[in-house]
Specification:
Residues 1-21 are annotated as: Disordered. The chain has two helices and nine strands. It is mainly beta and 120 residues long. The strands form two sheets. Strands 1-2-3-9-4-7 form a six-stranded antiparallel beta sheet, with no helix packed on it. It has a three-stranded antiparallel beta sheet with strand order 6-5-8, with no helix packed on it. A hairpin with a 2-residue loop joins strand 2 (23-30) and strand 3. Helices cover 7% and strands 44% of the residues. The mean pLDDT is 96. It is globular and about 45 Å long.
């Protein structure tokens, strides 16, 4: 690999839609793994719009990301919870549910766990 890699989410290598047209995940790939830009539309809820794809009771993907815009509530299986918004850095271990908050899409760039997220 050279010392420089430039890719654009405007031309993703793969796009994975969520159920019921509630958003999508755009992926770009690097030697270090996939990086995703997820757009979660108002009304998106992991339990309703990704759970049927994942086939697990809660999200079993670890996330490390930056919130570009919008808001999201994350609730861990043990009850710990937080609301994240524009400008926030977040990390979530496997075992959580999440949903958008408000009437604005939540856009997150996530560089951990995207290889198989919402993959059919």
């Amino acid at each position: 690999m050279s010392g420089l890699l430039v890719k654009s989410f405007d031309k993703p290598e793969e796009t994975r839609p969520f159920e019921q047209s509630t958003g999508h995940l755009d992926l770009i790939n690097s030697e270090a793994g996939a990086v995703g830009r997820a757009v979660f539309e108002p009304g998106w809820h992991w339990a309703e719009h990704v759970k049927p794809i994942a086939g697990t009771d809660s999200c079993q993907v670890a996330h490390k990301g930056y919130v570009v815009s919008g808001r999201m509530k994350i609730v861990m299986d043990d009850g710990e919870e937080a609301e994240i918004g524009s400008g926030d850095f977040m990390m979530a271990a496997p075992g959580h549910d999440a949903w958008t908050v408000g009437e604005e899409a939540c856009v997150i760039v996530d560089w951990q766990g995207m290889d198989d997220y919402a993959k059919r």
